[in-house]
């Protein structure tokens, strides 16, 4: 549908003609309104942003009907900015200020930062973010208390709305937690809000676009609760989660969240950091016998344990998986099968041998695995006594060779559901001898 901007003399009457470019007829709506520029069209009308410890987008801002700032001597970033608008933010005590934008109509914007007074501005060195294809984000280091002028303009497409937030990127000291909020459709919570109560002090938060988050401190003994108040439709697009200060998940809401209190806890001396789950290397399950293990992994864990350095053939990284650790109480051969049904593709890798308990710090096992299968076949997989290869890619047959082990050798095993469908796998040990894995048996060593 068409739209136009008319520039003319006050009092002039215009006739507006509309027609269908095809033979189709029907109804339509039309409106006329005065195209006043936004209040922050120039630096002296800049809108002051609240600097949070998270990115909480306020209502959308607009470049519609804004004009190009014409202050003489205003340093630019090159090119030809158009319809720019202005904001201010005060650098927090950390000395760092992070600015993030998100599309909400405009999909390609630019940004530059200035200091000084609104009538005499100096460009912050290195702050020009222009010439890209998306929405700008940047962090600047300046003395605490400095007022920063933020200039935003569109680089391509039509003028329109966008989101902008200012935050302190450094986390609080002591115990702190992160509240992440999301809207699956990217159009906000329609008036719904989440109430965060920390020690009796309540703050309401909502989502304007697709995401928002806040990192907040709390002290030992304080009670923290999260309550949701719905409004409007499409509640199945709303969700939130809570993380501890090490990034581990404390709670993930349903979608939609429950009305009222969804989650709460009392802050303890360990800042409520949960133990590592089996989906993280640090939470690896210790195997102490040839027991069969049935498990349906549901996540990739809180930590990315696999990197280009240690993942071996597992080019897809962690999807839905489980970690295991075990040691050989006697010498022998290690073999197992990972049995699956329903056309599910499971992959795995084995790291070792280690002379002491394997470490997962700082990121996953050190070095590449000694056995690895990334076969794309949706079938059972594992180590057997007939395969000749030690590792295989997507074209492999899903089986690699057994591992000769010595007394005391220790290993890590990662089993990953590449299909990402939470289907159960059955881990069956085929070791020789059968009592190869035994945590309770002391490791006997020959004294010299």
Describe, in plain words, how this protein is organized in 3D.
- By secondary structure, the chain is mainly β.
- The chain has 3 domains: 43-167, Jelly Rolls, CATH 2.60.120.380; 179-266; 281-429, Jelly Rolls (Sandwich).
- The protein is 0% helix and 36% strand.
- It contains no helices and 31 strands.
- Strands 19-21-30-24-25-27 form a 6-stranded mixed beta sheet, with no helix packed on it. A 5-stranded mixed beta sheet has the order 1-4-9-6-7, with no helix packed on it.
- β12 (193-198) and β13 form a beta hairpin.
- The radius of gyration is 29 Å and the shape is elongated.
- The termini are far apart.
- Mean pLDDT is 91; it is low at 443-448.
Notable characteristics:
mainly beta; Jelly Rolls; six-stranded mixed beta sheet; five-stranded mixed beta sheet
């Amino acid at each position: 549908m068409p739209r136009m901007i008319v520039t003319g003399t006050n009092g002039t009457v215009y006739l507006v003609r509309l027609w269908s470019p095809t033979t189709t007829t029907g109804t339509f709506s039309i409106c006329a309104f005065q195209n006043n520029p936004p209040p922050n069209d120039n630096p002296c009308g800049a809108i002051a942003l609240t600097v949070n410890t998270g990115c909480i987008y306020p209502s959308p801002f607009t470049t519609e009907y804004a004009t190009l700032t014409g202050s003489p001597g205003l340093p630019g970033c090159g090119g030809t900015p158009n319809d720019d608008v202005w904001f201010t933010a005060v650098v927090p005590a950390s000395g760092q200020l992070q600015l993030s934008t998100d599309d909400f109509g405009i999909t390609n914007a630019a940004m530059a930062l200035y200091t000084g007074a609104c009538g005499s501005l100096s460009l912050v060195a290195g702050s020009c973010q222009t010439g890209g294809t998306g929405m700008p984000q940047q962090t600047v280091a300046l003395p605490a208390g400095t007022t920063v002028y933020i200039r935003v303009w569109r680089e391509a497409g039509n003028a329109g709305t966008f989101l902008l937030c200012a935050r302190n990127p450094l986390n609080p000291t002591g115990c702190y937690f992160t509240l992440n909020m999301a809207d699956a459709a990217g159009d906000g919570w329609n008036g719904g809000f989440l109430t965060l109560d920390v020690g009796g002090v309540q703050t309401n938060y909502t989502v304007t676009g697709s995401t928002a988050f806040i990192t907040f401190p709390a002290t030992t003994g304080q009670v923290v609760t999260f309550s949701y108040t719905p409004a409007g439709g499409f509640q199945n697009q709303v969700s939130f989660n809570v993380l501890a200060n090490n990034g581990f998940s404390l709670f993930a809401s349903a979608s939609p969240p429950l009305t009222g209190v969804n989650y709460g806890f009392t802050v303890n001396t360990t800042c409520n950091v949960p133990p590592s789950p089996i989906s993280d290397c640090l939470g690896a399950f210790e195997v102490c016998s040839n027991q069969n293990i049935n498990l349906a992994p549901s996540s990739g864990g809180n930590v990315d344990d696999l990197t280009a350095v240690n993942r071996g053939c597992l080019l897809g990284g962690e999807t839905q998986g489980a970690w295991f650790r075990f040691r050989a109480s006697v010498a022998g051969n290690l073999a197992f099968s990972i049995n699956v049904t329903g056309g599910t593709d499971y992959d795995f890798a084995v790291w070792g041998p280690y002379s002491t308990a394997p470490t997962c710090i700082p990121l996953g096992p050190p070095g590449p695995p000694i056995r690895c299968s990334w076969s794309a076949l949706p079938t059972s997989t594992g180590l057997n006594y007939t395969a000749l290869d030690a590792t295989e890619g997507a074209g492999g047959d899903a089986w690699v060779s057994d591992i000769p082990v010595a007394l005391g050798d220790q290993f890590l095993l990662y089993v990953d559901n590449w299909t990402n469908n939470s289907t159960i796998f059955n881990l069956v040990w085929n070791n020789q001898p059968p009592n190869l894995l035994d945590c309770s048996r002391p490791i006997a060593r020959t004294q010299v």
